[in-house]
Amino acid sequence: MNWKLPNQLTVGRIVLAAVFFVLLGLYDAGSPSGPALLNVAFVLYIVAGVTDILDGWVARKFGWTSVFGRIVDPFVDKILVVGAFAMLAGLNYAADPGATPACAGELPDWLTGGMASAVQAWMVVAVVAREFVVSAVRGYSESRGVAFAATWAGKLKMFLQSVAICTVLYQLANVPQAPWAVYTKIATVWVAVVVTVLSGFIYVGRARNLLRSDA
């Protein structure tokens, strides 16, 4: 394998992802160490995002592209996002009635689904389904010799998902009782999920003519 800097950064991001998931799994809202775990996870996610941007820039600038990078780099990105959403929908992120902000009582239940993270199980299903559908369409399109590059919708989706994940981690760790933070968290999660679903439809729409021609 080509061990130039871009691939080293990609492997490093895999390690960061593993530690990130361990921290999310260890989180306990009632534990004194809970906020610290989430803050470290927050920093690791930011670092992973920076290395993702950096390895792509270095690979393009110096021509250090490789098959490993083209396959593993987007895979790690998806694992980080999908894994984060799945972990944040876990039982250790369910709302604790004794610690729920007063403003939460003003919100309809469907907005959070009883989750302190505001990430609900159906949202995880939507995020995973979108990735499966787009990967299937991209694979089929490229098998027919038709390029299927990323679009602005896909890049926006990734950005908003990352913003939502970071917002949830920061809010739960640092401002769990602040109404503005709670509302911001819920808004970013919902916007990320809606854009995720819409981006999936956009990708499918791009491949519609190819799919029709082979029907």
What structural class do you assign from the helix and strand content? mainly alpha
Helix content: over 70%
**Computed Rg:** 19 Å
Largest sheet report: none
Number of domains: 1
Total count of helical runs of at least 4 residues: 7
Number of strands: 0
Sheet-strand content, in percent, reads under 5%
Please give a structural write-up.
This protein is an all-alpha fold and 215 residues long. The chain has one domain (5-213): Four Helix Bundle (Hemerythrin (Met), subunit A). It contains seven helices and no strands. The chain has helices at 5-26, 34-62, 67-88, 121-143, 152-174, 179-206, 208-213. The longest helix has 29 residues, at 34-62. It is globular and about 55 Å long. The mean pLDDT is 87.
Q: Which features would summarize this protein structure in a list?
A:
single chain; about 220 residues; mainly alpha; Four Helix Bundle (Hemerythrin (Met), subunit A); 7 helices
Secondary structure layout plus pairing:
Layout: H1 5-26, H2 34-62, H3 67-88, H4 121-143, H5 152-174, H6 179-206, H7 208-213
Summarize the entry for a quick read:
The chain is built from 7 helices and no strands. With 215 residues, it is mainly α.
